[in-house]
Each structure stands twice: as structure tokens, then as C-alpha cells.
Amino acid sequence: MPMNIALIAHDRKKDEIVNFVTAYESVFEQHRLYATGTTGTRIMEKTKLNVHRFMSGPLGGDQQIGAMVATNEMDLIIFLRDPLMAQPHEPDIIALLRLCDVQGIPCATNIATAEILVKALDRGDFAWRELVHKYKPGVDG
After folding, report:
1. Domain encompassing residue 128
2. Any catalytic annotation for residue 11?
3. 47 annotated as ligand-binding
4. Using CA atoms, how far apart are residues 140 and 133, in angstroms rounded to an integer?
């Protein structure tokens, strides 16, 4: 069952996410990928993956992905944040992370957590989506 996966990376983390996606290309090719502007372009340049690109994060891309989270259309997010650099669109970032918490969407903000989630994808372990629907009041399922 293909999942919708968002890939986001701050400027100083773009090489890291490209290398990560390249290493797990065989896993990601089984899913529908979404990314903010430059991140998506860089991933497509280095892999054979098709990535639906939204706007750049500061121009609304984080919010576009957030809209998919809010409507329960996103299954997993890998968002490699740069905690040492102030981001001009920090409120959008916080809103996206909050929506992930509200909707029960796994969101990796560092490479170690991203690897754990991708290995779960590779094993076919999608139980978190079933749990969200089973135990979350107000979610049909």
C-alpha cells in the first residue's frame, strides 16, 4: 500500500536529505513523494524518483503540506530542520509540527528518526495509521 510521504529540508540540511533519499531510493520508489520546492528538485536531480513539488517552505510550501496533514492525506513527514539557524517562517514550521501531533502523523526532524521510520516502511509496518484511526476520537476508520 503506497503512502504519501513529505520530504522537507532547511538549506543546510538539503545535502543530508538528498543523500538519505538516495540511500533508500528503493524504499521511496514504492510511495508517493511530496516535497517543498528546492528539496524536491534536488532529490529528482540525484535519483529516478518522481516528486510532487510544492512551493518553497518560506513561500508557503510548509503550509501546503500542512493542508494535506490537516485533511489526513499525508502519512509520514521527514523534515530535516536546522536547529542552529533562525528561520524567517518559523511560525509555519511550528504549525506544521503541531498538525502532525494533532493528526498523529509521524514526523522525523533528524536523520536518526528518519532512518527508523524508513526502515519501518521497508518492513511494511504501517500500524501507526491503523492506530490513529482506531484510537483517535472523531476519526472515521
Report:
1. 4-135
2. no
3. no
4. 6
